[in-house]
Amino acid sequence: MTEPTVRVTPLGGVGEIGKNCTVLECDDTILVIDAGLEFPDADLLGVDLVIPDFTYLIENKERIRAIVITHGHEDHVGALPFLLRDVQVPLYATPLTRGLIEGKLRRHHLLGKIELNTMAPGDELDLGPFQVTPFHVNHSIPDAVGLAIRTPLGLIVHSGDFKIDHTPLESKTTDLGVLARLSAEGVILLLSDSTNAESPGYTASESQLLGTFQSVFANAPGRVIVATFASLLSRVQLAIKTAAQFGRRVAIAGRSMEENTAIAEKLGFISFPPETRIPLHRINEFPPEEICVLATGSQGEPNSALARMASGRFRHISIQEGDTIMLSSKAIPGNETQIYRNIDNLFRRGANVVYGTKAGLHVSGHAAQEELKMMLNLLRPLYSVPVQGEYRMLQVHARLAYELGFEHEDVFVMGNGDCLELSTAGATLIDGPEIEDVFVDGSLVGDVGNTILRDRAALSRDGFVVERVSVDPEMGEIVGEPSIISQGFVYVPESGDLIEEALEAIHRIVESHLDDIDDVEQMENIIKQGLEKLFHKETRRRPVVIAMVTWV
Amino acid sequence: MTEPTVRVTPLGGVGEIGKNCTVLECDDTILVIDAGLEFPDADLLGVDLVIPDFTYLIENKERIRAIVITHGHEDHVGALPFLLRDVQVPLYATPLTRGLIEGKLRRHHLLGKIELNTMAPGDELDLGPFQVTPFHVNHSIPDAVGLAIRTPLGLIVHSGDFKIDHTPLESKTTDLGVLARLSAEGVILLLSDSTNAESPGYTASESQLLGTFQSVFANAPGRVIVATFASLLSRVQLAIKTAAQFGRRVAIAGRSMEENTAIAEKLGFISFPPETRIPLHRINEFPPEEICVLATGSQGEPNSALARMASGRFRHISIQEGDTIMLSSKAIPGNETQIYRNIDNLFRRGANVVYGTKAGLHVSGHAAQEELKMMLNLLRPLYSVPVQGEYRMLQVHARLAYELGFEHEDVFVMGNGDCLELSTAGATLIDGPEIEDVFVDGSLVGDVGNTILRDRAALSRDGFVVERVSVDPEMGEIVGEPSIISQGFVYVPESGDLIEEALEAIHRIVESHLDDIDDVEQMENIIKQGLEKLFHKETRRRPVVIAMVTWV
Known about the structure:
Number of strands of chain A: 25
Structural class of chain A: alpha/beta
Distance between the termini of chain A: 76 Å
Shape of chain A: globular
Radius of gyration of chain A: 29 Å
Helix content of chain A: 25-40%
Oligomer: homodimer
Largest sheet of chain A: 8 strands, mixed
């Protein structure tokens, strides 16, 4: 009998935030933890979503025993439809997470085709060589868990996304008791959340927001509009409670906020005091000081409820003097410009906007440095892998471990394509499956790559020019007149001379080469180069030039 | 004799950061304060610079008496070449500011064509109805001033960009004595910097950085690379001093850093201890622990020295284990993605990177709320206009004034196109010249507008498709074969079917309409619409479609 090995592959890539997907393999069995997506950086032009490279899982689908989900955020469940359409395996999730996944599967016509299982903290799921026990953690969505995974080689702990909040607004704290028992059992490997590894100290408790919420509500002369993440249900509940306390009705604006609160209310994760909830179209029946609206758009997303209010495009609410808008969120890096533009627009309409890190309206859902140290010290794993974070966060997390006395060779900052292999001999990095980011654009998955992105970038900077000319090589002359169409390059009514010049250049180029060139493609190339040179000389711009020659 | 009036117009727009340009008018005389530029937001695709709309100044150039500059930052001097090429009027600046402007004018072949005058704090410049006295202020560039402007209606104070630093690293503090005397004289109008109006408390002193700099230098095992703004000369001097203290030579990487330090050294604003300065190509002659490099690239600008080091494209320096990189700067909103990508890349090469607001490596150059209150309370102007800031910052600044007891009607948050008119009767907002943002793209100024930007945005998302077909209307048939060229749309080798489908669609459309359509443009429109529909159905993308029909 061969010695067992356990292999851990971060299939969503390492050192990238979002698209979390961890693959555990023992003998011939694969266990998948999470399948998240990432929203693209601005330089991924036209890309809608970035998902993990599922090739390896699809090629080995008969070996997959289950998918276990830690919580219902998009960066942990968003890519599930893209995986499940090819790989129908049982899925395990806590009730709220399951509820959110069901909505997603319904929209992708996958509901009913997948075996969905509800799990709860303390359950022991026997999944072949893996015995998985979820434990409760605090995070910015309720019903989140970490995972204790018993393998033939020993106990692996996956922290999930967590913080240690001693006074959360949901009922339960991160289960330190379970963590202590796991520690006593002996942990060979800890995979731990690195999102907030750059923040010194402790992440503040969700309860700390209560005071600032009350103070803003108490001083608001008119309506209060609270914008936050639709999945941040403890924040949603806090806003509802505070609204009720100050005698305000609550309406909800924005599709994802409506959907999430409906699921959470049905499953008992949030509740409205009697007579608090009203439909959006009824808000004008009450005086402004009796209204609170929960809205999407804390990131300034152009089609969100708040952004439409800010630009006067929201049907039920026009922002007016006396409105108070609370941004109960942080800026996700890359969104700053649109967030601030939104705030400016709200001020322009006379609203008061309470925003920014110093306003005390938001706390993170992720463990800061002292909490990460506590997790490491409590579990004292043999080996440790910082996960869930951009590369610098993993490095900073690793440095925290070194400070606690972990040896450099026992902490693995993994790169894309790395796989950590555990055996009785120890832990080593080996080559894992090759992975690359997979881009979803429109209804197509994976066709957009570097070539298309490079073309789009060039087009975005200087537009394009299409030139068309018909040539009669027998007669050695141009037939009719050459023509030019351009878009995104120059403002044509003001650049008449340039277009004239370009048409003349086409004449000149064609006529001077008709004797020595009888190949269409070659002629097109020479025209293209000539025009590129002319445009750059006259404008210092470099439009994409397409030259079309018709040999008649 | 008519009563005098003074009109104040923020020509660079109000509530936009950058491109500062304030126009004062009294009787027939115009005084211009600053002429700055703004770097475009990411959604201004392909735009290189945004400058103020100088139309009004160009149309009234014979009335302009002078341009007075407060300090040498790009958002105050960057648009000067675009103004001075049309308007040759005398310019006044302090020595360092003048030195920086000279470099700029030289590059634009304007040096020698403009009357440049050096001014110093305390000077009394008689500029027609305006008597201008600069006073020293602390800012993140030396030799910055605010302006006391005496007019027939009374004293106007322009704060310039300022903070109140009691222990600056340059020799002089913001001149509170002069401000007190101005206050005693009586101030009718204060125009005051709003950049940092969102920050509670006081901005920390530049001296506070000394300790953190020393600590990072003391613990760095190899080279230290300090990235900061090239104009932040007090920071540059701090790095040089600390390097010398720890026995390190200093080399400079990056064109703007080289130019600015050369001008500042020549004018006595920075100095290198003996034998400290070495050229970049000699750094490998010394052991790493004896080297410090000052580099551009704190904003992750792709062609900056630091970004090229991070991606392995910098000739003289390859980042190695043991290198310590200090980011002594803040992230300008919108630059976060590229800054963090840069940091990730530096970590990937084994460097240690010290960065982030909590690292203690940067302080702002702008007054925070308590300093703004001090300015307001010290001067107690009759009227007050928050300037230099995005719209929300102006609003927050105005609210600070209300807290101090200023009446709402005496504080003016101006919008684009507003002009503040002062007369013996008081202050009122009137319509000023119409202004709009002017975009510089390549060598052309002002041709890029909404149409081009909209086209570029469409192209950046889904690329374009050009279709070409020749038709013989007499014979009622297509001549040859239609063809399709696309860029940025789909990856053609993987989308053969789609292109085939499109070619078939062209056949179908042309053939079914040859009887009823004999107009080229109409046929092109029908093909365009057919292809747009097909592409959206098959891909959910919306490429720009150009249909070209040749009637043969």
